[in-house]
Amino acid sequence: MQEGPLLMTQADRDRLIALKKVKKNLITQREAAAELELSVRQVQRLLDGLKKEGDKAVVHGLRGKTSNRKIEEKTERQAVKILSAPVYEGFGPTLAAEYLEKKHGIEASKETVRQWMIRGKLWQAKKEKVKQVHVWRPRRERYGELVQWDTSEHDWLEGRGGSEKLYLIAMIDDATSRLWARFVRHDSREENMKLLWSYLEKFGRPVAFYTDKATIFRTAEKHKRDEPGVEKDPVEMPPTQIGRALQELGITWIGAHSPQAKGRVERNFGTAQDRLVKGMRVAGVKTIEQANEYLVNDYLAWWERELTMEAANPDDAHRPLDKSHNLAASLSYVETRRVDNDYTLRWDGKRYQIERQAVTTGLRRANVRVEQRLDGSLAVRFGERYLPVTECDVATKPKAAHPEKKAKPRQTKKGRGSDWNKNFDLKKAPEIWQAAQASGNRREGSTT
């Protein structure tokens, strides 16, 4: 019997569920090995351990213990210091391991040196490349093993809703063709997360979602428009908000390379653009509320009755939600913010103050997780604890009063600047020819 609480990770709990299904003959050992990504022999070892030790057999025996073969941290620090020298700049783990042994007497495998360099920020881990892609595949055998997820843009109301544009987001199970869908006004992250939330609450967590490579599912690597077509190694990009949420929920994301690869959900849209559009036309649907009501009560009920099938294996691969799964936290917009010295942080152009009773050691200048929830609320988490925050009232600086400038009186000139023509009178002036004759500048050949 297991004494005391048994601490398990989510992977351990999923492994335990699969093993117990094998014991109940709901799935075979080979199917469990495929789901857990283990060999059949390893599954057999775990089943033997489950009989002898109970649930703790799925927890690794060395968890929390220091390996007997671990190299001292002093040696690691010395090796990182050596490899940080300019002479070793650009060395890979294999070459670095050779030089550490040859020049400095530090014996370690290349994989150990690789981990040292990663922790010392001297090496960046690379994602393993996919070696083989299977274009064609049969249906999955169990309900919940794979769910295809996509959005269709179409004139669903045929103009009856005015200028309102609707999108149909659908999730269809690969093994049974069971359908879950909703009409939305925008094909956005928020609307897709809301549908995902409703799916998880109703059915549980599937093993994997199969989608296209839209930007809400996958962060695309940016390339310059005029960059030559030179093949480069793929760069590992950070996950999107939905990708991060699926990771936190223990759900695998699979990206389709073409629309044909996710043909089940594409054919569903073809049927919907015919049968569903015509049905809503007959029902006189004009609003998104009426469209969703018809979709749930009529179309999905017909689909479940006529187009679904039984899975090859009757076991349900959906895993239940437990207390460790916080849908409000996972299905939110998450970013990291740094706490300032006055225990405030900035978010969306505003400043928030962490309440005094929530301040703990190490919080100042630390990174916290900020969650913008789907309901509009804001949550801040430090480690595993949520911190209460309040929005700061930023005082506006009063505008400095500018002294009124008095208009300068217009200065009028009392007199002219020069009096050279003071006694000049145009009416009493001599004629031009008289003035010329008097000056002695008379032209030659002119007559008086």
Index terms:
448 residues; alpha+beta; Nucleotidyltransferase, domain 5; 5-stranded mixed sheet; 4-stranded antiparallel sheet
Question: Helix and strand layout, with pairings?
Answer:
Layout: H1 10-23, H2 29-36, H3 40-53, H4 73-83, H5 93-104, H6 110-119, E1 142-143, E2 147-153, E3 167-173, E4 179-184, H7 189-203, E5 208-211, H8 241-248, E6 252-255, H9 263-283, H10 288-306, E7 313-316, H11 327-330, E8 333-338, E9 344-347, E10 350-354, E11 367-372, E12 378-382, E13 385-387, E14 389-391, H12 432-439
Parallel strand pairs: 1-7, 2-5, 5-6
Antiparallel strand pairs: 2-3, 3-4, 8-11, 9-10, 10-14, 11-12, 12-13
Helix pairs in contact: 1-2, 2-3, 5-6, 9-10
Strand order of the largest sheet: 4-3-2-5-6
Spans of at least 5 consecutive residues whose pLDDT stays below 50 are none
User: Globular, elongated, flat, extended or rod-shaped: what is the shape?
Assistant: extended
> Average pLDDT, to the nearest integer?
84
Description:
- The protein has about 450 residues and is of the alpha+beta class.
- Among the domains are: about 10-60; about 75-120; about 140-220 and about 240-315, 2-Layer Sandwich (Nucleotidyltransferase, domain 5); about 330-390, no CATH class.
- The protein has helices at about 10-25, 30-35, 40-55, 75-85, 95-105, 110-120, 190-205, 240-250, 265-285, 290-305, 325-330, 430-440; strands at about 140-145, 145-155, 165-175, 180-185, 210, 250-255, 315, 335-340, 345, 350-355, 365-370, 380, 385, 390.
- It has a five-stranded mixed beta sheet, sandwiched between helices. It has a four-stranded antiparallel beta sheet with strand order 8-11-12-13, with no helix packed on it.
